[in-house]
Amino acid sequence: MLLVCGTILAGSVTAAAAADCEVKLRSADTHPDGYPTVAAVRWMGDQVKERTQGRVCVEVFPASALGEEKDSIEQTQFGVIDMVRASFGPFNNLVPETQIVSLPYIFRSAQHMYNVMDGPIGDQIAEGFAQHDLIVLGYYDGGARSFYNGERPINKIEDLKGMKFRVMQSDVFVDMMAAFGANATPMPYGEVYSAIQTGVIDGAENNPASYDTSGHFEVAKYYTLDEHLIMPEVLAVSKVTWDKLSPEDQAVLKAAGKESVTVMRDLWAKKIAESEASVEKAGSQIVRGIDKKPFIDAMEPVYAKYVTTPEAKDMVEKIRATE
Question: How many domains does one find in the chain?
Fold first, then answer.
């Protein structure tokens, strides 16, 4: 929550301790300290503190310290937590606009996703978040999500048949797995390691950095770069918190949040390369260069289910037309 904690002493910004900030903003993240999203929000916090002469501080709580993603999103909506960095997946049932950009293979590349989210479509989606008391500060890169498991390498779509994979709590993800011929098991991110280890599920799907930093490679050594989802993520502030800030501080937070997007994306590119090398060194088998066409073709019923309204069809057309 937004906290008022005294008057800052005169002096340099660097000399102002966190306890002396007039306003403390708590920001939640499920990823561990040092992860690109965490580092980018910390960078943003440094910028906010400097630009407000130490009056406003951002405290980042990584590794689900403030709760799993779904819980931290809800707490941010109510203003219990001030900010949250979260994937689009958990928003699919809350903010309909996020469903379209969460569709499998909707983006051709990471750069295509950046061009879409940084333009008018991103602004349109931000309006959807605002209706649920979340003010978008920027869109981060959630990476290309791919399958990993402890049973066998996935070389073709038929290899997925009958396997149990953890997915985020999203109807789109559940339907995607069914179209692949696999079984979806929604569960919190923090439960995945033990679920694979004990055989509750065969595997999960995520980007290389998460596969690495979560330690999931220890229990699921087969990783296939099918890249079925190039997923945006959102950095958002609670409207409850936002409305308590002065217009000047709102402008500072908005600007620093937008600038942190570039910081995050640069860190992300480096992290992906490091993670792939790290897990391979640890014994993981990364399957590259698969034929994606059968995977893409299998998504036809998913698009038929979620792209039904004129607005949704228009958004898909605009995304595909974006260079």
Answer: 1
What CATH number is given to the structural domain containing 226? 3.40.190.170
The residue written with tokens 């099918």 in the block is 226
Q: How far apart are CA 92 and CA 25, in angstroms?
A: 26
How far apart are alpha carbons 153 and 150 in whole angstroms? 8
pLDDT tens profile 150-172 = 999 999 999 999 999 999 888 88
- Cα–Cα distance for residue pair 149/35, rounded to 1 Å: 23
Q: Where does residue 259 rank: exposed (0-12), middle (13-18), buried (19+ CB within 10 A)? A: middle
**Spatial separation of the C-alpha atoms in residues 26 and 45, rounded to whole Å:** 10
Host domain of residue 25: 3-321
> For position 89, what pLDDT does the model report?
85
pLDDT in tens, 291-316: 999 999 999 999 999 999 999 999 99
- Cα 86 to its chain centre, rounded Å, is 4
pTM of the model: 0.84
User: 183: which 2 tokens?
Assistant: 């079984």
Alpha helices in the chain (DSSP H): 36-51, 69-77, 97-101, 110-117, 120-130, 171-180, 192-197, 208-213, 239-242, 247-281, 293-297, 300-306, 310-321
Burial of 278 (0-12, 13-18, 19+ CB in 10 A): middle
